[in-house]
Amino acid sequence: MDLHEMDRYIKSIIKEAGHKIRNSFLTDISIESKSDANDLVTNIDKEIEQFFISRINRDYPDHRIFGEEGFGDEIKDTNGVIWMLDPIDGTMNFIHQKRNFAISLGIYADGVGKLGYIYDVVNDDLYSGIQGGGAYYNDERLRPLQDTEIGESILAMNATWAVPNRHFDHNGTLKLIQDVRGIRSYGSAAIELAYLASGRIDAYISMRLSPWDIAGGMVIAKEAGAVATNFKGEPANLLEQDTFLAANPSIHAKILDRYILPK
Ligand code: 2AM
Ligand code: CA
Description:
- The structure is a single chain.
- The protein is α+β, with helices and mostly antiparallel strands.
- It folds into two domains: 3-141, Fructose-1,6-Bisphosphatase, subunit A, domain 1 (Fructose-1,6-Bisphosphatase, Chain A, domain 1, 2-Layer Sandwich); 150-260, D-Maltodextrin-Binding Protein, domain 2 (3-Layer(aba) Sandwich).
- It is built from seven helices and 14 strands.
- The longest helix is centred in the first third of the chain and has 22 residues, at 3-24.
- The chain is globular.
- Adenosine-2'-monophosphate binds at residues 35, 39, 68, 86, 89-91, 158, 187-189, 208-210, 213, 241.
């Protein structure tokens, strides 16, 4: 697998997909609910996933595709090359705000992240990572993350995780909110991981993310030096929904040890 050749190819199809999404702002978008009333999908999410699948099937027929909207392959193992795609991460923002959403794509070979992309479509900002080759913000190489302290950190999370919920003891989250310097919530896991990789935030926490939400961002964040695991400290789950903590390496273990309280 020639990663640099794939990198050039992927950047060109991501930009093409971004163009389609921007054009969709001029059309009527149809909105449906999935697992619950606030879990949304539009015809654009579906069209963009199908666009990627047609290109990948044509140009990389041996590769498999794990996409949020289910038009790709049924993935039950991490063997071979898998493209993990969220055509629009932050669909609620896409619908309500027309910003703060991204295309998220990670290429994994036998479970190892090789290439990662987060494209902030409206700002035309592309974050990328190549295994062993660094993390990039457009053409600029991102600097390795500098050590920090919890009290000097900005944490990104959804406010949902600070109120009683069935996944997690929220008292740990409340303490963490009190101890960090500031909290931000962008509503797109991909954008939050891009911001972690570029040092704009220091940690991102979620009780429930799917593989396509994090696959691209993990490659980029790892290349910038960040650490990503589930709440048990295990490698993030590439096959199923799970808890997720990605952070600056100097505070990742401290957050897990001091604030993540098992229920
Ligand atoms: P999505 O927009 O692609 O659904 C919102 O805080 C973040 O969590 C987004 O990245 C969103 O991805 C993701 N998300 C929202 N609902 C989810 C669910 N039910 N399962 C997994 N991820 C979800
Ligand atoms: Ca999505």
